[in-house]
Amino acid sequence: MTLLEVRDLRTWFEGDAETVRAVDGVSFSVGEGEVVGLVGESGCGKTVTALSILGLVPEPPGRIQEGSSIRLGGRELVGASARELRSIRGRRVGMIFQEPMSSLNPVYTVGEQIGEALRLHRGVRRREARRLSVDLLDEVGIPEPGRRRTQYPHELSGGMRQRVMIAMTLAAEPELLIADEPTTALDVTTQAQILGLLDRLRSSRGMAMLLITHDLAVVAERCRRVLVMRHGRIVEEGSVEAIFREPRHPYTRYLVYAAMSPAAGAGSPPAGSEGDVP
Fold first, then answer.
1. How far apart are alpha carbons 60 and 62 in whole angstroms?
2. What's the 3-state SS for 253-266?
3. DSSP category for residue 177
């Protein structure tokens, strides 16, 4: 069953000199419990798509254009009131950002921040929120969760801060998790740990996930379907097997080539890719 359905999404940013069509006619869907990858180079509109779904596009200068549709469980989000969108964010759709320090408040302990999410979205009392925050920190693999709960974000490593961000997102028990480049700022070993953690949590909780990344190899390991985005549009969509076996768009062919190691026989770049990829 379809959980999220995006149709003809157009999110533009009005400037003094020109209008930037950051997202320009994007359509896709995510089913219940499904993992979908959204790939593309930096600046192609991936994050703006995610922010549009959550109703977080800054207005002005940004604006979702008339005719766009974002339906979550059959409920239209475009044009919804601020109050309606607040009830959706976190509770039904959670988002993990690529840099947790931009999302965590430096003047509150991580336990206080997780507790606030629990009280806001699940209505638990303060004492119960303290207990559940420790349980969540333990669930995301943070050692000594009782002690870590009292620490501030700057006292934790980058990998631990990302785990705290995941714990905060899980506190609301969302149906859909949007992970926007969740491992970009982390070292290779920690990246693998965080991605493995997301796999386990998504599976155990039955969440759907939209995984946003520029790395097609990450998508190949974790997703069922792939959306390839370029210049604000979806240029190709298909199963992981189809995309890797027989990519149709020149840009997709180049991404597949870039994802393959020389040892795997990647060979020369696809014909025509130099003129097609900026």
1. 5
2. HHHHHHHCCHHHCC
3. E
